[in-house]
Design brief:
The chain is an alpha/beta fold. The protein has two domains: 33 residues; 83 residues, Cupredoxins -  blue copper proteins (Immunoglobulin-like, Sandwich). It is built from one helix and seven strands. The strands form two sheets. A four-stranded mixed sheet has the order 2-1-4-5, with no helix packed on it. About 22% of the residues have low confidence.
């Protein structure tokens, strides 16, 4: 009887560990999908210039200049230019659809970037 009880407890323990691992894996996947990925605006560049993310992730453009303002403009997609981002200000945008999204800085047209959503 004692051996049967130990065997039952062992089976329940293994099952509980497996369920816990599944919950941990799904939580990690959800966190990765909502993770904020940063693009730095510095020295009239978007760094990185090309960024690959997963669908559902958010990109944060952070202005790290000392005195210069920038914007983020998905002009060729018909979107309005963002407000100007002054030093230490940021803009967040979530990308839900796979594709490639080119953008530029409104005041500085040579400052370009691309988001690739997988």
């Amino acid at each position: 009887m004692h051996k049967i009880l130990m065997l039952v407890l062992l089976v329940f323990s293994v099952q509980a560990c497996a369920n816990n691992q599944l919950e941990t894996d799904s939580t990690a996947a959800a966190q990765n999908a909502t993770e904020v990925v940063e693009v730095t605006m510095l020295k009239f560049k978007f760094i990185p210039e090309v960024l690959e993310i997963k669908s559902g992730q958010t990109v944060r453009w952070m202005n790290k200049e000392k005195r210069q303002y920038h914007s983020v403009w998905f002009e060729k997609y018909g979107e309005d230019e963002s407000d100007y981002l002054f030093p230490d200000e940021y803009l967040d945008k979530t990308f839900d659809k796979p594709g490639e999204y080119d953008y530029r800085c409104g005041p500085h047209p040579k400052m370009i970037g691309k988001i690739i959503v997988k």
